[in-house]
Design brief:
This protein has four domains: 3-129, Response regulator (Rossmann fold), CATH 3.40.50.2300; 167-295, Alpha-Beta Plaits (2-Layer Sandwich); 314-419; 422-532, Arc Repressor Mutant, subunit A (Orthogonal Bundle), CATH 1.10.10. Helix content is 59%, strand content 11%. The chain has 21 helices and ten strands. The chain is elongated.
């Protein structure tokens, strides 16, 4: 980025020499103005905000000392080089408090001045880069906190204590409305059975990034929340509510589907709520969209837009309520609530007349899928056991058999959850957070704060649970993801580095080379050659 300089001197020949002799273009500096006195210089400062000022001390109307005083009161942090004659050198002490960076004696040695300017310019650019990094990190931290609040509201956890974070625009949570889209991998149950853990992480990461890349082109505030494996809730802020345009939202949904299929050759299904959603309704609408996707499993083209909520029969609503109670109890390790909801659910289904079985079968199937995905997200079921359950469900069992599968799933889940120690649950949350935020600035303090424990206790638990330090683990996850992306994606090495959390290509290359023994470009070429062979 080019910098701006201002030249201030009442001697026109000095101004001309400064313009002609100093290699401003080579230094990437534009001279945005010249002035004969401090008063005229201040006008230029107000309009142009130069980063570098060369200023004489003795000038008419307003001298250099008064100019410096006014400059700092104005709030400018420009670097200033004072030009002074031998007879004026006694003034130097009086400008120290104005943070003058250097002094050049007249007659001017232009070679010396060129070196001085070059040194100051390097310092200015370093500070600007540091400030940009700080701003970027702060924005990232704020956005992560904001998404954490939205996630907690969506999952109905964490209460409302963090809601003051909810908006940059000084809006309260009551002022926020969203367009809500729920994205799900098509034929997820088949994909999940065929993916190993590495493939599951890769595809989840890749889809998440494609969703973010497309949404960033809309240039409106959005959040992509990965709720569980193969499922993302997309929230696009619509303020005020009357700005909601259903047809525009449907177009976004179709564009998202096209983008994922084009870049990843993977089909997704999208459900869209047909109206703006307030903060308080996020959890309720999310569950409804989940049901819409599951109960319309045969529809794999187009966008699913459920009708506005209709009055459900008391019996139907009771079924859905028991399902949600059971899953919520399972998530919160509440055995009494889970088992109680399961008993009521079994009783409700047994009381249904035979004519209702055809209508109820999709609901039961949805419940099985729902439970299996939640068990996977809580790490309470292994791949082989999950495959066995999927196999049972593939045979389209009747109501009685499906209920038996559900009971076995819940019993197994409760036992597994209850066996887990608090430390295990914390570390599962940490692992999930790392997977969802590989591109962010991850640190021990960030994770410890997320989990509500101290940094030292987090480090101890992490090493005990994973057998390696937090930095070693995160680096490994990032490098493995980078290897996968280099193999399947044509994105630039810089872009892939940024996707896995490295803002600078040089640093990403250094870490990748240390981890793999190869440059990213060498690894990509070698992998692609193997694929083609």
């Amino acid at each position: 980025m080019r910098l701006k300089a201002l030249l201030v001197d009442d001697e026109i020949n000095i101004i001309k020499n400064l313009q002609a002799v100093i290699p401003w273009d080579e230094l990437d500096i534009d001279i945005v103005g010249t002035a004969k006195n401090g008063e005229a210089a201040l006008e230029i400062v107000r309009s142009q905000a130069p980063e570098l000022i060369l200023c004489d001390i003795r000038m008419p109307v307003m001298d250099g000392i008064r100019f410096l005083e006014e400059l700092r009161e104005h709030g400018s942090d420009a670097e200033v080089i004072m030009m002074t004659g031998y007879q004026d050198f006694s003034y130097v002490r009086s400008v120290i408090r104005y943070e003058v960076k250097d002094y050049i004696l007249k007659p001017i040695d232009y070679d010396e001045l060129g070196h001085t300017i070059g040194r100051l310019v390097e310092g200015i650019r370093e500070r600007q880069a540091e400030q940009q990094n700080i701003q970027r990190e702060w924005h990232q931290v704020f956005h992560l906190a904001y998404e954490k609040v939205l996630y907690d509201v969506l999952m109905e956890v964490g209460g409302g204590s963090a809601r003051p974070l909810l908006k940059h625009h000084e809006l309260s949570g009551e002022d926020l409305t969203f367009a809500m889209l729920l994205v799900d991998v098509a034929d997820y149950s088949q994909k999940e059975r065929n993916w190993d853990d590495k493939e599951r992480k890769l595809w989840n990461f890749a889809v998440h990034n494609v969703l973010q890349e497309y949404l960033s082109t809309l240039q409106i505030p959005y959040s992509v929340l990965q709720v569980r494996s193969g499922e993302w809730c997309v929230l696009i802020e619509r303020m005020p509510p009357e700005s909601f345009d259903k047809h525009q939202c449907e177009d976004w949904c179709n564009q998202l589907r096209d983008a994922v299929e084009r870049y990843l050759k993977l089909r997704i299904r999208v459900a869209l709520h047909p109206a703006p959603v307030s903060l308080e309704k996020l959890a309720h609408v999310y569950k409804n969209l989940q049901r819409s996707l599951s109960l319309n499993a045969a529809q794999d083209s187009g966008v699913i837009v459920p009708e506005r909520a209709k009055e459900q029969s008391e019996q139907s609503q009771r079924l859905w309520d028991r399902i949600e109670e059971m899953v919520t109890g399972l998530k919160r390790c509440d055995r009494r609530k889970t088992e109680g909801a399961l008993r009521e659910l079994n009783e409700s289904f047994r009381q249904l007349p035979d004519a209702s079985y055809e209508r109820v079968q999709p609901i039961l199937h949805y419940l099985c899928l729902h439970l299996l995905r939640e068990m996977r997200s809580m790490d309470v079921i292994q791949g082989e056991d999950e495959a066995a359950f999927w196999k049972q469900l593939d045979h389209n069992p009747g109501i009685r058999e499906t209920l038996a599968v559900i009971n076995r799933l819940v019993d197994r889940s409760i036992d597994s959850v209850m066996k887990k120690k608090t430390s295990d649950v914390l570390m599962l949350s940490a692992r999930d957070y790392i997977e969802r935020n590989l591109s962010s600035d991850l640190s021990i303090d960030t994770l410890a704060d997320y989990l509500g424990i101290s940094g030292s206790y987090f480090s101890l638990l992490f090493k005990q649970h994973f057998g390696e330090t937090f930095v070693e683990y995160v680096t490994k996850q990032r490098m493995e993801m980078a290897k996968s992306m280099l193999a399947i994606s044509d994105k630039s090495i810089t872009a892939i580095g940024q996707m896995v959390g490295y803002a600078e290509r040089r640093y990403f290359t250094r870490v990748f080379s240390k981890y793999t023994g190869q440059l990213p470009s060498e690894y990509r070429e070698q992998t692609q050659n193997k694929t083609q062979a």
